[in-house]
Specification:
The strands form 2 sheets. A 5-stranded antiparallel beta sheet has the order 7-6-5-4-8. It has a 3-stranded mixed beta sheet with strand order 1-2-3. It has 2 domains: about 5-70, RimP-like superfamily, N-terminal (GMP Synthetase, Chain A, domain 3); about 85-140, SH3 type barrels. By secondary structure, it is an alpha+beta fold. The chain has helices spanning about 5-10, 45-60, 85-90, and strands at about 15-25, 30-35, 70, 95-100, 105-110, 115-120, 125-130, 135-140. Helices cover about 25% and strands about 40% of the residues. The chain starts with a helix and ends with a strand.
Length: about 140
Amino acid sequence: MDRDTLKALLKECEVELYDTEIVTENGRKIYRIYITSKDGITLNKCEEVTKIISPLLDTNPPIEGQYYLEVSSPGVERKLKSIDNFKASVGELVKITTFDKDKIKGKLLKVDGDNKILIREESGDLKEINYTDIEKAKTYYKW
């Protein structure tokens, strides 16, 4: 199943695709689908999505061989791997490391187009970053 088809199916379930990944844990292949919603993600919503998607993946598997399907929320503290992840996280606290090894920490204020990201750093300063300059990024929660 391609990403666009998966997105469309999830939209019917009133959730959005955040990310997918294929991992091996304890010798088991796992296909994970991370979903988000403005209202939050519940266990019941994950179960509903699993019941809808699972039969479709049986006829069009995402990977070869046996695997396990997991549907879950990406969590409060999650990796930001795409510009869409950044767009979905506006208003949240983020930690960013650039390829130049600069470390930026603050509130994600805006994503302009597909390249410019605006952060209000903890010091209060505004910092604009090119998406292509980011080596890794994640949201964080101040406990």
